[in-house]
Amino acid sequence: MRKIGVLTGGGDCPGLNAVIRAVVRSSIRYEWEIIGIRNGWKGLIDGDIELLTDYAVSGILPKGGTILGTSRTNPYKNPENIQKLRDNLKRFGIEGIVAIGGDDTLGVALKLHEEGIPVVGVPKTIDNDLNGTDYTFGFDTAISIVTDAIDRLHTTAESHRRVIVVEVMGRHAGWIATMSGIAGGADEILIPEVPFDMDEICRHLMARYERGKRFSIVVVAEGAKPKDSDMVITQSSERDEFGHVRLGGIGHILAREIENRLHVDTRVTILGHVQRGGSPTAHDRILATRFGVAAVECIKNNDFGKMVALQGDSIVPIPLQDAVGELKTVKMELYEISKIFFGR
Question: Got the DSSP string for 79-131?
Fold first, then answer.
């Protein structure tokens, strides 16, 4: 009987449980034993595991979050942790790992693969910014949540004749802002890929007022920044183990500038973690399930050092090195579509 481990690392997102369930159910077909590794790479360092049975994953398909827990632990921060990780793999007899995560989690997976540890990656990032895959699960849920919020904010903005700035997730890539902004009919969309011009934003908003539209919705990704500055707005200078600071606050700066320049009542809504919470959409449940099944097939075929990816209508294994290290940013032809509606 083969033993494989599964873990979830980085930020949570809807669909993680669907992947775990698919890994367990697919492995049972081959009479494998599935070891759940708690709290990402930290669980493999600490030896914090649980046996995942068919019963353990019953009913988790529609649940958000992850039954295994997660963390942003980087085992390479301390060489002793790598040895502990290796010792625990041997101790528990784990012959392969399914690592579900984004650029950081899969970056660790790639290093471990290069050191001879059998790993298969499953792409997980709510920002949809991983290379090699057309979409990541959780993204569809996030843009659905944001679009619904924009729809709701439209009515209150129109009633009070306000500008409402909606700040959404998107550290380096503005996929959520762009897609939800288009779907929700936002009047301005600001993303990290395109530094914004405050004068231009105000001209667009004023043009709407001059045309008789006395309200506006501005969607901004948390990592967006003005043309005259390379500095992103942060909540804290503290960094996690992968060197990331916590972003947030650009919405308030924008709102203050808009109100001061246009003398229009302006409010801010920061959606924050609500974007990554709750039940996954049908699309994300199906995609996550397909990823989990494909990851088990990679292990069955000893096809390690790969990440399962959606390309077109197919799930295919690609080298981990093709997926990490360089982010997938918003396609400019898509962003150009959104700009058609600015100031209208």
Answer: HHHHHHHHHHHHHHT--EEEEEESHHHHHHHHHHHHTT--EEEEEB-TT---T
> Of residues 127, 140, 187, 284, which has the active-site annotation?
127
CATH T-level fold of 140-277: Rossmann fold (3.40.50)
240 is catalytic: no
Q: Strand 216-221's sheet: what is its strand order?
A: 188-190, 216-221, 163-168, 266-270
> 243: pLDDT confidence band, cut at 50, 70 and 90?
very low
* Location of each CATH 3.40.50.450 domain in the chain: 3-137+280-323
The Cα 10–Cα 134 span in angstroms is 20
Share of the chain above pLDDT 70, in %: 94
Asked if 164 and 157 touch (Cβ cutoff 8 Å), the reply is yes
The backbone torsions φ and ψ at residue 274, rounded to the nearest 5 degrees and listed phi first, read -60, -25
| DSSP β-bridge partners for residue 310 | 315
